[in-house]
Design a protein that fits this description.
This protein is of the alpha+beta class. The protein contains 3 helices and 7 strands; from the N terminus they run αβββββββαα. The structure holds zinc ion.
Protein backbone atom coordinates (compact mmCIF):
# COMPACT_ATOMS: atom_id res chain seq x y z
CA UNK A 1 0.00 0.00 0.00
CA UNK A 2 1.25 3.47 -0.85
CA UNK A 3 1.70 5.41 2.33
CA UNK A 4 0.30 8.56 0.72
CA UNK A 5 -3.02 6.74 0.43
CA UNK A 6 -3.27 6.35 4.19
CA UNK A 7 -5.85 8.34 6.11
CA UNK A 8 -7.38 8.13 9.54
CA UNK A 9 -10.39 5.83 9.61
CA UNK A 10 -13.40 6.90 11.63
CA UNK A 11 -15.94 5.10 13.78
CA UNK A 12 -18.16 2.97 11.55
CA UNK A 13 -15.27 1.80 9.36
CA UNK A 14 -15.10 -2.00 9.82
CA UNK A 15 -11.29 -2.06 9.86
CA UNK A 16 -11.39 -0.47 13.35
CA UNK A 17 -13.07 -3.64 14.65
CA UNK A 18 -10.60 -6.06 13.04
CA UNK A 19 -8.02 -7.91 15.10
CA UNK A 20 -4.53 -7.07 13.89
CA UNK A 21 -2.19 -9.79 12.67
CA UNK A 22 1.35 -10.12 13.98
CA UNK A 23 4.08 -8.94 11.63
CA UNK A 24 6.34 -11.84 10.62
CA UNK A 25 9.20 -9.77 9.30
CA UNK A 26 9.59 -6.02 9.57
CA UNK A 27 10.20 -4.68 6.06
CA UNK A 28 10.74 -1.28 4.46
CA UNK A 29 7.03 -1.34 3.69
CA UNK A 30 6.32 -1.43 7.42
CA UNK A 31 8.82 1.38 8.02
CA UNK A 32 7.02 3.52 5.43
CA UNK A 33 3.67 2.85 7.10
CA UNK A 34 5.08 3.70 10.55
CA UNK A 35 6.44 7.01 9.23
CA UNK A 36 3.12 7.84 7.61
CA UNK A 37 1.32 6.93 10.85
CA UNK A 38 3.57 9.27 12.85
CA UNK A 39 2.86 12.08 10.38
CA UNK A 40 -0.90 11.54 10.60
CA UNK A 41 -0.69 11.42 14.40
CA UNK A 42 1.17 14.74 14.54
CA UNK A 43 -1.15 16.32 11.94
CA UNK A 44 -4.13 15.32 14.04
CA UNK A 45 -2.43 16.60 17.20
CA UNK A 46 -2.73 13.12 18.65
CA UNK A 47 -0.33 11.38 21.00
CA UNK A 48 -0.78 7.85 19.66
CA UNK A 49 -2.02 5.97 16.61
CA UNK A 50 -2.51 2.29 15.77
CA UNK A 51 -2.17 0.80 12.28
CA UNK A 52 -5.85 -0.23 12.23
CA UNK A 53 -6.68 3.49 12.46
CA UNK A 54 -5.14 3.97 9.03
CA UNK A 55 -6.78 0.87 7.58
CA UNK A 56 -3.94 -1.62 8.10
CA UNK A 57 -4.65 -4.75 10.11
CA UNK A 58 -1.08 -5.40 11.22
CA UNK A 59 0.13 -4.99 14.80
CA UNK A 60 1.93 -1.64 14.79
CA UNK A 61 1.57 1.50 16.90
CA UNK A 62 3.19 4.92 17.16
CA UNK A 63 3.18 6.95 20.36
CA UNK A 64 4.57 10.37 21.28
CA UNK A 65 3.38 12.13 24.39
CA UNK A 66 5.96 14.89 23.91
CA UNK A 67 9.15 13.16 25.00
CA UNK A 68 10.03 11.24 21.88
CA UNK A 69 8.49 9.03 19.22
CA UNK A 70 7.98 5.32 19.81
CA UNK A 71 7.33 3.05 16.84
CA UNK A 72 6.46 -0.44 18.04
CA UNK A 73 5.73 -3.53 15.98
CA UNK A 74 3.95 -6.51 17.60
CA UNK A 75 3.59 -4.74 20.97
CA UNK A 76 2.63 -6.90 23.93
CA UNK A 77 2.12 -5.96 27.55
CA UNK A 78 3.88 -8.40 29.87
CA UNK A 79 3.38 -6.68 33.20
CA UNK A 80 0.82 -4.31 34.69
CA UNK A 81 0.62 -2.55 38.02
CA UNK A 82 -1.72 -0.10 39.75
CA UNK A 83 -4.66 1.84 38.38
CA UNK A 84 -5.37 5.18 36.73
CA UNK A 85 -8.42 6.82 35.21
CA UNK A 86 -8.22 9.33 32.36
CA UNK A 87 -10.61 11.06 30.03
CA UNK A 88 -9.61 9.69 26.65
CA UNK A 89 -10.40 10.88 23.17
CA UNK A 90 -9.62 9.08 19.93
CA UNK A 91 -8.70 10.35 16.47
CA UNK A 92 -11.07 7.70 15.09
CA UNK A 93 -13.97 8.76 17.29
CA UNK A 94 -13.82 12.56 17.00
CA UNK A 95 -15.73 14.67 19.47
CA UNK A 96 -16.13 11.95 22.07
CA UNK A 97 -14.45 11.65 25.46
CA UNK A 98 -14.75 8.60 27.69
CA UNK A 99 -13.43 7.95 31.16
CA UNK A 100 -11.26 4.84 30.98
CA UNK A 101 -9.70 2.88 33.83
CA UNK A 102 -6.31 1.40 33.00
CA UNK A 103 -3.13 0.13 34.64
CA UNK A 104 -0.84 2.85 35.97
CA UNK A 105 2.41 1.11 35.08
CA UNK A 106 3.12 -1.33 32.29
CA UNK A 107 6.01 -3.20 30.81
CA UNK A 108 5.78 -3.72 27.08
CA UNK A 109 7.79 -5.76 24.64
CA UNK A 110 7.83 -5.66 20.85
CA UNK A 111 10.07 -4.87 17.91
CA UNK A 112 11.42 -1.57 16.67
CA UNK A 113 11.17 -0.50 13.04
CA UNK A 114 14.31 -2.48 12.20
CA UNK A 115 13.03 -5.66 13.78
CA UNK A 116 15.15 -5.38 16.94
CA UNK A 117 13.59 -6.28 20.29
CA UNK A 118 12.17 -3.47 22.42
CA UNK A 119 11.45 -3.53 26.13
CA UNK A 120 9.65 -0.43 27.38
CA UNK A 121 8.61 0.48 30.91
CA UNK A 122 5.93 3.15 31.02
CA UNK A 123 3.77 4.78 33.62
CA UNK A 124 1.10 7.47 33.85
CA UNK A 125 0.12 9.06 30.54
CA UNK A 126 2.59 7.04 28.46
CA UNK A 127 1.23 3.79 29.92
CA UNK A 128 -2.33 4.97 29.26
CA UNK A 129 -1.58 5.78 25.61
CA UNK A 130 0.10 2.42 24.95
CA UNK A 131 -2.87 0.59 26.46
CA UNK A 132 -5.28 2.62 24.29
CA UNK A 133 -3.30 1.78 21.13
CA UNK A 134 -3.05 -1.91 22.03
CA UNK A 135 -6.84 -1.93 22.41
CA UNK A 136 -7.06 -0.72 18.79
CA UNK A 137 -5.02 -3.75 17.70
CA UNK A 138 -7.69 -5.94 19.32
CA UNK A 139 -10.50 -4.03 17.62
CA UNK A 140 -11.49 -2.34 20.86
CA UNK A 141 -12.48 1.34 21.05
CA UNK A 142 -13.03 3.82 23.90
CA UNK A 143 -16.79 3.70 23.30
CA UNK A 144 -16.67 0.10 24.56
CA UNK A 145 -15.74 1.47 28.00
CA UNK A 146 -18.70 3.87 28.15
CA UNK A 147 -21.02 3.55 31.12
CA UNK A 148 -24.75 3.14 30.55
CA UNK A 149 -25.30 6.88 30.94
CA UNK A 150 -22.34 7.78 28.75
CA UNK A 151 -23.68 5.42 26.07
CA UNK A 152 -26.98 7.31 26.02
CA UNK A 153 -25.15 10.64 25.85
CA UNK A 154 -22.91 9.67 22.92
CA UNK A 155 -25.46 7.62 20.95
CA UNK A 156 -26.44 10.47 18.64
CA UNK A 157 -22.86 11.55 17.94
CA UNK A 158 -21.88 7.94 17.15
CA UNK A 159 -24.79 7.59 14.76
CA UNK A 160 -23.66 10.70 12.89
CA UNK A 161 -20.08 9.43 12.71
CA UNK A 162 -21.30 6.10 11.36
CA UNK A 163 -23.39 7.82 8.71
CA UNK A 164 -20.37 9.84 7.64
CA UNK A 165 -18.18 6.72 7.49
CA UNK A 166 -20.72 5.02 5.25
CA UNK A 167 -20.75 7.94 2.85
CA UNK A 168 -17.00 7.88 2.55
CA UNK A 169 -14.83 9.50 5.15
CA UNK A 170 -15.67 13.15 4.75
CA UNK A 171 -12.84 15.07 6.28
CA UNK A 172 -13.65 17.21 9.25
CA UNK A 173 -11.64 19.19 11.73
CA UNK A 174 -10.55 17.08 14.69
CA UNK A 175 -12.86 17.87 17.56
CA UNK A 176 -11.01 19.46 20.41
CA UNK A 177 -13.47 18.50 23.12
CA UNK A 178 -11.01 16.06 24.65
CA UNK A 179 -7.42 17.03 25.17
CA UNK A 180 -6.11 13.49 24.93
CA UNK A 181 -6.40 12.32 21.32
CA UNK A 182 -5.11 8.82 20.65
ZN1 LIG B 1 -7.77 5.74 19.48
Amino acid sequence: MKETALRIRKFGDPVLRKKSALVNKVTSGHRDILSAMARLMYDGEGVGLAASQVGIDEAMVVVDIGDGLYKVVNPRIIKIQGKQVNLEGCLSVPGICIKVKRAKKIQLIGLDENGNPLNIKAEGLLACVFQHELDHLKGKLIVDYASFLEKIKIAKALKELKKKAEHENLSEPAAKSCKLQL
